[in-house]
């Protein structure tokens, strides 16, 4: 059973998301919050697997709230935004979010997204591409790349991961099993001190390991 926290300052949206997620047999909504500060307090108390967070909220914005939640719990954050080119998307990922969706996401896709994030995968809305992430990354001061501990194979996996490929796609590219890819991903994330695939994508661009995405 995957536990979920829902945070949004719009009561109708909050209730709708909670109802949709509660209807899934494998998901349980442990609470809802109307602002970022309440979300942080609720997350620390209930320790949900996933926090579904609005980006713009009163008292404490969603990005700051996510940073606090991911720093003190194992909760994974899935951001909800109104616009597919939201200026805060990159900041949300850098703060610890595992992905984001648009508020008009169909119910089935919302449920699927929570499941994806709960199992540790990155999730980006269709309207937001690696090109957008790379553009945001280029506006930040690059941080030193620390990849010396990665094996040659782990580096290959990392580069493919940074391109947004799934484990199955990476396995096909390298002609290995998905289990092998999963093992490499787990090890490289641990070596680099990264939380999940979303953080790996951001790190790859910030450190300069991954060049600009193909256009």
From TrEMBL:
The keyword Transcription applies. One of its GO terms (biological process) is regulation of DNA-templated transcription. Residues 3-118 form the Response regulatory domain. Residues 143-208 form the HTH luxR-type domain. It holds the Pfam family Response_reg. Gene3D superfamilies: 3.40.50.2300. Coiled coil: none annotated. The keyword Secreted does not apply. Keywords: DNA-binding, Phosphoprotein, Transcription, Transcription regulation. It comes from the Bacteria. The modification 4-aspartylphosphate is found at residue 54. One of its GO terms (molecular function) is DNA binding. PANTHER family: TRANSCRIPTIONAL REGULATORY PROTEIN NARL-RELATED, TWO-COMPONENT RESPONSE REGULATOR. This is DNA-binding response regulator. The lineage of its organism: Bacteria, Bacillati, Actinomycetota, Actinomycetes, Streptosporangiales.
């Amino acid at each position: 059973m995957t536990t979920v926290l829902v945070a949004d300052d719009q009561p109708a949206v909050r209730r709708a998301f909670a109802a949709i997620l509660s209807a899934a047999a494998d998901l349980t909504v442990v609470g809802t919050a109307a602002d970022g500060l309440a979300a942080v307090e609720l997350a620390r108390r209930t320790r949900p697997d996933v926090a579904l967070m609005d980006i713009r909220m009163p008292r404490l914005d969603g990005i700051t709230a996510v940073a606090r939640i991911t720093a003190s719990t194992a909760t994974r954050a899935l951001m909800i935004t109104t616009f597919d080119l939201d200026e805060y998307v990159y900041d949300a990922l850098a703060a610890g979010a595992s992905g984001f969706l648009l508020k008009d996401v169909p119910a089935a896709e919302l449920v699927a997204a929570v499941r994806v994030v709960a199992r540790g995968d990155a999730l980006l809305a269709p309207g937001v591409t690696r090109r957008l992430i790379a553009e945001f990354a280029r506006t930040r001061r690059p941080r030193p790349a620390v990849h010396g501990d990665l094996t040659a194979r782990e580096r290959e996996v990392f580069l493919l991961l940074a391109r947004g490929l799934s484990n199955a796609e990476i396995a096909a590219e390298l002609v290995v099993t998905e289990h092998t890819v999963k093992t490499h991903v787990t090890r490289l994330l641990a070596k680099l001190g990264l939380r999940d695939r979303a953080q790996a994508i951001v790190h790859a661009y910030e450190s300069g390991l991954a060049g600009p995405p193909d256009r």
